[in-house]
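agent> Task received from the user: take the single chain below, predict its 3D structure, and emit structure tokens. No templates, no multimer pairing.
agent> Plan: (1) validate residues, (2) run structure prediction, (3) serialize to tokens, (4) report one or two observations.
agent> Step 1 OK, no nonstandard residues flagged.
tool_call: predict_structure(input=
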Amino acid sequence: MSRSALSRFTLGAVGLLLALAATVSPARGDDEPEVDGMKGAAWVDVLNKSDSARQRALAVQALLKLWVEKQYIHSLPTIGRALQVDSSVAVRTQAALALGSLRESEVEKGHGAQDLIDAMGREKTSKVRLLIAKAIARYKGLPALSASQLAGALKDPEPATRAAVAEALALAGPAGKSAAAELAPLLKDEDKAVRRAAVIALGRIEPEGSSAVAEAMVKMLPAEKELDVRIELITSIQLLGEKSPAVVAGLGALLSDPDDEIRRRATRTLGSFGTAAAPVAEALLKVAKSDKAKDVSVDAVYAFGSAIGPDELKKRLKDMLALLADTDFRVRVAAIDNIASLGNELKDDAETLKTLRARYGDPHIRVREAARAAVERIEKKPEPKKNPDPKKDG
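)
tool_result: status=success, residues=394
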């Protein structure tokens, strides 16, 4: 556990004291707080010793109320113990709900945190696992501390529980990378919510072998029917940062997808790949020229320039200049931005400068401004290189 984790969850000495408090009946006194006509110590006895599951479940609710209203010190340790060891599913359910209702600041001080972590690793009932996973996900930092316990619950028979556990792991970030092997099979889960949660988690835990994960996600895209899952697949592929030929080809195939959002996401992801996206540069240019969603065309203009790199872009200026005739001003601005990125390299290109100056009269002010800025950038003389060794000056 990291130093920052220890500072957020003081689970050592404090946890030991709280555990001791849970197993020892508190001393009774006239100043003992009470709820529903019974003092706190009596409710502790009910939860620890009663043969009635119904009474123990009521005791959980009473002790939570005593904590909320009176900060009764024995409440949460007793509830936490019940979450881990009580034989009744109903009682453990109430205990999980109780600990999941605490304030962030209370859990940061150690209240209930270790009990939730330990219970996640111990619990076998799907319903209670679900509630524990959701409780863990509520508290910042706790998913990272619970990663190994969460991973052990990914094979739960209930889809809702598997999804909740995967969602909690997504919040663990890199601390959850050890769960990659358990998450990967869920990419093929029959339940949509489980697949989606697994995709999100794998994109955020920085798994070992991320290239294989990204390629597995690319292979899912053609067959996946659910739009929101497809969107999350593309997002996670981008987060993984893998740019293998298989990934690039898979994303390139999406540039002709009938759904606007899929084409948009694929274009933007490829635009983040730099020259690794060169194999699909022509497909990007086609999108830039003809996509029915003009914002996708704009993204494709920038992605095309990024994919081919400055040297090749200089050779493909005619393609950029042709885009200045596009009916959408945003496409024209994007094309000008690509041209301007070459800067002083174009100082002797009279045709390009002439075409840009012609855009000073463009109907849209943003195009006019972009054209002027581009000409200024191209014609600006580069700064003289400074000698790094001042002794050689003069």
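agent> Step 4: summary for the user.
The CA atoms of residues 242 and 325 lie 35 Å apart.
agent> Done.
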